[in-house]
Specification:
Length: 802
């Protein structure tokens, strides 16, 4: 929200410069994003002038030669091209030496042979408004010629760009911000702009309102104004609206926007003569009902959204934008002025669906208090008299279903100190609350606090303490240790996940944190089949974009995206991993959430060095080694085997299934060439493992045994098996029958060729035997080797090679 500083200081002036005021507001929770300055940096050289005469330029049809009274000095001769300049006008003049907002310095000059000693300015040139084709004409009574222009108009306005949090809609008006400044600095707070109300309650003749949806419209008020005639919005109001980011449209619309700026309550003016039957109904929209809004666009509504309509149909989209059919214009003579509050989530949903953001919807969606409607009507009645010279007709339509009173909250002695960790003197505490508009009654051992009616966010004693703390100064709260015997520790699962991450780092990987969202196009990029469950990813109801509209079912998307970004920036060896959630479709449940460990390797398997300037590229074996190493670090034995059917995004001959105790927990492999082309990562190796079964397989207690002091006996065994046979199964069988002295089984050779026959492969196994209490003999090792040989021959049809 943009707040003109001169308007803020009207109600609370602490005597501080703009940056200091911004700092005070920021320290109390109202973030100031920016302090900007409109108009010229200095008012020097800008004065009020009166046009004495304006004659046609002798050599230019569009120029006038003006003689302007600028005070004590001689009248200035100024050449002006504005079509509306005329004798007798009070105008804004930039004399030679004045510096315009864009940095241009005014100098004496000759225009078509006539000397011009200054410039008669428009609103746009002074940054007082969006401007027009003509000069700024000031009211005759505003100042005498020669008066510094800054004393007549808000020249050089300072604007505070505020970030108002959703729980503080009371600060969506300038007076609410002034109350915050008053509470923080103690500077006097002027009476609120609604202190004087020129209207009255009771029925309104010639107008009626019916609210069919009281749960979506807690309060609706309306007043009627008659006798509206030609008028002009005062320059002060126009300039304040411009500084707040709103353009001046017409006196009636400007009044409603000015009330919204000051009070925080959006208002809407209906041309009562264009409201069929003089009656409005707040009702639910029908399916596909069409409303033509003030911007001239036809918008289709959904059933359940809220409309304001008359006997002919919709006239407005409630809380979002008015309708063109009952729009006020220069011919309007009777106005129905509405101030209402609406259900915030409903307004937010409608505004978001229609892609129609407005100043009104931005306020209503935060949940305004019902009391602001009567405040807005009171201030509007004052502005209607000041600007248009008319008062409201007798009566006010007021339909309310909202609670009329604020809660009474008890704050016991010691509660504030116990919560904040330091004591705030009672008189200071009460003073802070009273400056914030709270009613406070001090008791023997507690205080009774009633929040102001526009503070819907204060409902409990802790809310009251928060108010006191932020005004007293959060920086004054001392740093203390938690009042507990000991801090909490990590659960076993958390500790294990950290060990997983540490193991990946030890393998040379860098961790990434990817989005939990994925693109609907990801399944196609991964070549998933039409019936793959991953295509049924959970859709997000309010996505940030179409590219992030699904919950991810795999970590691959974020991993490959990150690897691709690194690759195009010249990274030659990429190792990335992520430990994060995936969300699988789960029937009636929103999603089956699982934690997975995923990784990608691309490029060389290890960094280049002087000894090895061209290291080999990473392949499926490099990925398998990483998976084995990481799981073995958790004392989990994993088996890698050839998958029964290759995953569509993996190379069909260069992938493996990862299993623990016979149950599949993940996969590892090289990307399918078509998938690799999509991300421009040829030969990339990827893997993904479910973490839950890994944690379940971890031993509760890790048992250690001393290293044997006796030497190992090694035996080599080469066995020929079918080409589809995995070495992992051979190793598992060897451990099963090899006895307790079998310490390790390693593959040291793989050979296929004419000597072993077509469809066969020779796998060389190195068996290592060691006993804890003695040195094994060759005979003992050979006997165990023969047992292993027999098992491999029997189970896998193996043939021992000599």
């Amino acid at each position: 929200m943009r707040v003109p500083l001169s308007l803020l200081l009207r109600w609370c002036d602490p005597g501080l410069d703009p940056e200091a005021i911004a700092s005070v507001l920021a320290l109390t929770g109202t973030e100031v994003e920016r302090v900007r300055r409109l108009g010229p940096e200095s008012g020097e050289g800008f004065v009020v002038g009166r046009v004495i005469e304006a004659t046609q330029h002798p050599d230019a049809d569009r120029l006038r030669v003006c003689r302007v009274d600028v005070g004590e000095r001689e009248p200035a001769g100024i050449v002006c091209g504005a079509p509306n300049v005329a004798a007798g006008q009070l105008v804004a003049v930039a004399l030679p030496g004045a510096v315009m907002p864009g940095g241009t310095k005014i100098k004496k000059a000759k225009l078509r042979g006539v000397e011009s000693a200054g410039m008669i300015c428009s609103e746009a040139e002074l940054d007082l408004g969006t401007g027009s084709d003509g000069i700024l004409v000031l009211p005759d009574s505003i100042a005498e010629p020669g008066t510094p222009l800054a004393e007549a108009v808000p020249l050089g306005e300072v604007v505070l760009d505020l970030e108002i949090t959703p729980n503080r809609p009371d600060c969506l008006g300038v007076y609410g911000v002034a109350r915050e400044l008053h509470a923080a600095t103690g500077a006097p707070l002027a009476d609120p702009p609604w202190a004087v109300d020129l209207g009255a309650g009771g029925p309104v003749e010639g107008a009626a309102v019916e609210v069919e949806l009281p749960e979506l419209c807690p309060r609706f008020t309306a007043r009627v104004y008659e006798g509206v005639g030609p008028a002009e919005t005062p320059i002060e109001i126009r300039s304040h609206l411009h500084a707040a980011g709103m353009r001046s449209i017409s006196p009636i619309v400007d009044i409603t926007n000015y009330v919204m700026l000051v009070v925080g309550e959006p208002m809407h003016a209906f041309d009562l003569d264009l409201v069929e039957g003089g009656a409005l109904t707040i009702r639910e929209a029908g399916a596909d009902e069409i409303v033509t809004t003030l911007d001239g666009q036809s918008r289709t509504m959904l059933a359940g959204e809220v409309l304001i309509s008359d006997a002919e149909g919709p006239t407005s989209i409630a809380g979002v934008m008015g309708g063109a059919r009952s729009e006020v214009s220069e011919s309007t003579s009777r106005v129905l002025l509405e101030a209402a509050v609406w259900d915030g989530p409903t307004i937010h949903d409608t505004s978001l669906r229609l892609a129609l953001r407005s100043e009104a919807s931005g306020r209503f969606e935060k949940g305004l208090a019902p009391v602001v409607t009567e405040r807005a009507q009171a201030y509007a009645s004052v502005l209607f008299e000041e600007v248009l010279g008319i008062r409201p007709q007798p009566g006010t339509i007021d339909i309310s279903s909202a609670a009329a009173s604020s809660p009474k909250i008890t704050v016991g002695d010691g509660f504030v100190t116990g919560l904040l960790g330091h004591e705030i003197p009672p008189e200071r505490l009460i003073g802070i609350l009273e400056r914030l508009g709270f009613d406070v009654e001090a008791g023997a051992d507690a205080i009774e606090v009633v929040p102001p009616p526009d503070r819907l966010d204060v409902q409990r004693a802790v809310d009251v303490v928060e108010e006191v703390a932020r005004i007293d100064g959060l920086d004054r709260i001392p740093s203390t240790l938690p009042a507990i015997a000991s801090a909490g520790g990590l659960t076993a699962g958390q500790s294990a996940r950290r060990r997983l991450a540490d193991s990946m780092v030890a393998e040379g990987f860098f961790e990434i944190a990817g989005w939990s969202f994925a693109s609907p196009g990801l399944p196609d990029a991964l070549r998933l089949s039409a019936d793959d469950p991953a295509r049924n990813a959970v859709a997000i109801e309010n996505p940030m974009s179409e590219e992030e509209s699904r919950l991810r079912t795999t970590l691959l998307g974020s991993l490959l995206d990150s690897a691709a970004r690194n690759a195009v920036r010249g990274a030659e060896s990429i190792r990335l991993f992520e430990l994060g959630h995936v969300y699988l479709p789960a029937g009636d449940d929103p999603a089956d959430q699982r934690i997975r460990l995923g990784g990608v390797i691309h490029g060389t398997s290890r960094p280049a060095s002087w000894r090895e300037p061209s290291p080999p590229r990473a392949d499926v074996f490099a990925g398998s080694a990483v998976v084995r190493s990481v799981l073995s670090g958790l004392k989990v034995e994993a088996a890698l085997s050839r998958p029964e059917s290759a995953r569509p995004f993996l190379h069909p001959g260069r992938s493996a299934e990862v299993s623990i105790e016979g149950a599949a927990v993940g996969w590892v492999g090289e990307l399918h060439p078509l998938v690799a082309d999509h991300w421009a990562l040829p030969g990339a190796v990827v893997f993904e493992i479910d973490v839950a079964p890994v944690l379940a397989a971890m031993p509760a207690v890790i048992a250690y045994r001393p290293l044997s002091a006796h030497p190992a006996v090694r035996q080599d065994l080469a066995v020929t098996v079918g080409v589809a046979q995995s070495a992992a199964e051979l190793k598992a069988a060897a451990f099963e029958v090899g006895g307790p002295e079998l310490e390790s089984v390693e593959v040291f050779d793989v050979y296929s060729g004419e000597q072993v026959g077509e469809g066969r492969v020779s796998i060389g196994l190195r068996l290592s035997f060691r006993a804890a209490d003695r040195t094994l003999t060759e005979e003992e090792a050979s006997a165990a080797r023969e047992t292993i040989t027999a098992a491999l021959t029997e189970r896998f049809g193996g043939e021992v090679r000599g």
